[in-house]
């Protein structure tokens, strides 16, 4: 299933394709502030990103570029991947790459649109995610979005030269019967 175009008050969510290849996008992936809690290496090149987006282009996945409508600027990405059709669940991920747009509610707005789509159109029953416990801004966002912690992987991954716990969180679709 390919990602459909979704629109909110301030954002346009378009399927992520190689159209979004840019030096700015590469700069997000190499910015220590942006990537401090990502598993992505921090030595990305334009060629690396081009290869990655070429693969994404060919996949049938729910992966969106987050576009700020007022200035038509690509500010991040959001995805639900993989989706497990049998279990009716998907794995959420978001990257707000442009730091000038942080703290303004765009991650929440994009997330609400994607979650609404997944729960009402795809009838997913559960959306899950993993987050570094030290990433307090992300944890707070997920709690505001209605996610709950289901488990903790203690000292699971290394970030900023320290072992960190990984929270596994989930949100259930309360509109359908389990």
Report the total helices: 5
CATH superfamily descriptor of the domain at 6-125: Gcn5-related N-acetyltransferase (GNAT)
The low-pLDDT segments are none
**How many beta-strand elements?**
8
CATH topology of the domain at 6-125: Aminopeptidase
Question: From the alpha-carbon coordinates, what is the Rg to the nearest angstrom?
Answer: 16 Å
- The H-and-E topology, N to C, reads as EEHHHEEEHEHEE
CATH architecture of the domain at 6-125: 3-Layer(aba) Sandwich
Global outline: globular
Relative strand content: 35-45%
SSE arrangement:
Blueprint: E1 6-7, E2 11-15, H1 23-30, H2 32-35, H3 46-58, E3 62-68, E4 73-84, E5 89-96, H4 106-120, E6 126-132, H5 136-144, E7 148-159, E8 162-172
Parallel strand pairs: 5-6
Antiparallel strand pairs: 1-2, 2-3, 3-4, 4-5, 6-8, 7-8
Describe the fold and architecture.
With 178 residues, the chain is α+β, with helices and mostly antiparallel strands. Helix content is 28%, strand content 36%. The chain has 5 helices and 8 strands. The chain has an 8-stranded mixed β-sheet, with helices on one face. The longest helix is centred in the middle third of the chain and has 15 residues, at 106-120. The mean pLDDT is 94.
Short summary of the structure?
This protein is an alpha+beta fold and 178 residues long.
């Amino acid at each position: 299933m390919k990602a459909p175009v979704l629109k909110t008050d301030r954002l346009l969510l378009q399927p992520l394709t190689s159209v979004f290849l840019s030096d700015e996008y590469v700069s997000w992936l190499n910015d220590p502030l942006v990537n401090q809690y990502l598993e992505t290496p921090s030595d990305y090149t334009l060629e690396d990103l081009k290869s990655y987006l070429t693969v994404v282009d060919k996949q049938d996945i729910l992966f969106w570029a987050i576009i700020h409508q007022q200035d038509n600027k690509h500010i991040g990405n959001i995805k639900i991947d993989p989706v497990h059709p049998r279990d009716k669940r998907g794995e959420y991920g978001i990257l707000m790459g442009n730091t000038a747009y942080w703290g303004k509610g765009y991650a929440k707005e994009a997330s609400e649109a994607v979650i609404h789509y997944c729960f009402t159109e795809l009838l997913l029953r559960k959306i899950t995610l993993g987050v570094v416990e030290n990433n307090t801004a992300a944890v707070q966002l997920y709690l505001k979005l209605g996610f709950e912690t289901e488990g903790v992987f203690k000292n699971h991954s290394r970030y900023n030269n320290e072992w960190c716990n990984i929270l596994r969180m989930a949100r259930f679709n309360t509109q359908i019967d389990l």
